[in-house]
Design a protein that fits this description.
The protein has 300 residues and is of the alpha/beta class. β8, α8 and β9 form a beta-alpha-beta unit. α1 packs across α2, α1 crosses α4 and α5 crosses α11. The two termini are 62 Å apart.
Length: 300
């Protein structure tokens, strides 16, 4: 190299302080040593970097132009140095994570909290994704892994269920159904029903349950997200069949959550690409997620 990193460091110090004396203080190096480096730099570059005027170093136009490039390089070197120092205190990098909205308020929120506490140098990019687009996000490397409220079928995905849940019924507090120990689908059908749209997986789950019970599904309102259903129940628009995870993550005193007589299971799953190289921090997150599930982690 005609212009070594040490020469850049010395040149930058002289430019910042305006003198060899100031640079020597900044770099804790003797003045004669720095003078020799400056002279050698000018010789190897074939440029006059400073004009010597009455003992002062006046930068030439070439030096001013060179300084702008050197300072940018020096800032990058400092970032590399900071990165190297950060490795001492633990892993660093980025985890790209997607999650079904239904799981975002309780289980996954707690897992992210533990993750950032264990790995403060790893940044988490977190987004909510509907089931219909989750496979594309994972296989397109938009995210390193996803946590889905239902298993996803795709030949290029590794889908691992890790817990069990179920659908429940939500009604306004004091509703006629609130006195029942368990609410059947036939009971729901007697009241205005708020249901997930049949074009989405939750809607297909609800439709299948009504078909199995030989009851026609007549919804007053179709929705796409469970928290919207709960908002409508609060407003008195009807009753709804929803996932237990969303209602566990909400503190709404004016709705009641009731068990369903029919068992409609949910199997939240870890979703990863079959082509995953293992270079992301996904495994660290999964470990903490599973520990939380084993400890009975739920939303308050």
């Amino acid at each position: 190299m005609r212009f070594s990193l040490r020469q850049m460091e010395v040149f930058r110090a002289v430019m910042l302080t305006g003198s060899i004396k100031g640079a020597s203080r900044l770099l804790f190096t003797s003045q004669p040593a720095l003078s020799r480096i400056v002279a050698h730099t000018e010789l190897t570059l074939g440029l006059a970097l400073f004009n010597r005027v009455k003992g002062k170093l006046i930068p030439t136009p070439e030096a001013e132009a060179l300084f702008r490039e050197v300072d940018q390089c020096y800032q990058q070197v400092l970032r590399v140095d900071d990165f190297a120092r950060g490795l001492v205190s633990g892993p660093s990098g980025v985890l790209n994570l997607a999650c079904s909205p239904a799981l975002s308020r309780g289980l996954v929120a707690k897992a992210i909290t533990r993750f950032v506490q264990h790995y403060p140098n790893i940044q988490v990019n977190y987004c909510l994704t509907l089931l219909n687009s989750m496979a594309q996000d994972v296989l397109g490397n938009k995210v390193d892994l996803a946590i889905s409220v239902l298993p996803i079928e795709h030949p290029n995905l590794r889908v691992t269920p890790f817990m069990e849940g179920r659908m429940v019924c939500v009604v306004p507090r004091g509703h006629a159904l609130a006195g029942l120990e368990r609410v059947g689908i036939a009971d729901l059908a007697r009241y205005p029903l708020i249901a997930h749209h049949p074009s989405i997986p939750f809607g297909q789950l609800v439709s299948a349950a009504f078909n199995k019970a030989n009851i026609s599904l007549q919804a007053s309102v179709y929705i796409h997200q469970t928290d919207t259903a709960c908002s409508l129940v609060r407003a008195g628009a009807g009753v709804a069949m929803v996932d237990q995870f969303t209602v566990e993550g909400m503190a709404w005193p004016d709705i009641q959550v009731l068990p369903l007589a029919e068992n409609i299971p949910l199997n939240p799953s870890i979703v990863r690409s079959a082509f995953d190289t293992g270079k992301s921090h996904a495994a660290k997150f999964i470990e903490l997620l599973l520990k939380g599930e084993q400890a009975g982690d739920r939303a308050p």
